Amino acid sequence: xxxxxxxxxxxxxxxxxxxxxxxxxxxxxxxxxxxxxxxxxxxxxxxxxxxxxxxxxxxxxxxxxxxxxxxxxxxxxxxxxxxxxxxxxxxxxxxxxxxxxxxxxxxxxxxxxxxxxxxxxxxxxxxxxxxxxxxxxxxxxxxxxxxxxxxxxxxxxxxxxxxxxxxxxxxxxxxxxxxxxxxxxxxxxxxxxxxxxxxxxxxxxxxxxxxxxxxxxxxxxxxxxxxxxxxxxxxxxxxxxxxxxxxxxxxxxxxxxxxxxxxxxxxxxxxxxxxxxxxxxxxxxxxxxxxxxxxxxxxxxxxxxxx
Length: 307
Known about the structure:
Subunit structure: Forms a membrane-associated complex with FtsE.
Keywords: Cell cycle, Cell division, Cell membrane, Membrane, Transmembrane, Transmembrane helix
Strand content: 5-15%
Number of domains: 2
Structural class: alpha+beta
Number of strands: 6
Distance between the termini: 23 Å
Number of helices: 9
Domain FtsX extracellular: 56-164
GO cellular component, one term: plasma membrane
Helix content: 55-70%
Largest sheet: 4 strands, antiparallel
Pfam families: FtsX, FtsX_ECD
């Protein structure tokens, strides 16, 4: 009987305060759309890092024939096969815990398989280069991509090594931009959540004020505080539920149209978030919205409907 009464009161509140209900739904929708976008952006960064960092390698560029500014290349000639073998042995001995695989790439292999793919016919900055203009190199696969500095410290001073480069340097500026975008989105989401909390408390308090005579009568006949307050709390929770569900639906549409439907087909070398990612974060968004609404409503009513 009490549950039936609470549900009827909740329905009455919803039908009497349609405009306030729509306002609360809209603010919740926008707030949690920003939150969801922030979470999806960070998930995209994490997904891309996991895929790219597993593929990137540390490249040890060996001294070229001719002049080089590196002190390790004072001889003016590229390392001999035996010197390259010794360097590989040094890597296996001193960096066994860091390096998982060593791949030697000759000048000709690099020219045929890498350089000419980026620069057809070997044309680079107005010049036509050949394999003799390239450098021998060692490509190192790391067990932990973050241990690049350890490799650089060991090999940078070795004779025959001109430079040590980490391919992650190509991606880190991209990730930095995405991280800043995530931070901006998170700040906007935080502001919108604060607005949602304030609006929820105000809406519920105004709803209670419009029915103050009824709540006073309920108190006189012995109704408990929770019996009086629960319909108003449910009103806010239902509005937040609908608003958060709409935000999840919009995130799904955005991912389907702009990510999997367009970007993934245009740029195929990046792993993207998908509908499963949206499904994974949706329960958290819905529960978070309802929890914030319940907390805001409870605090607001506790101050307004004093026993």
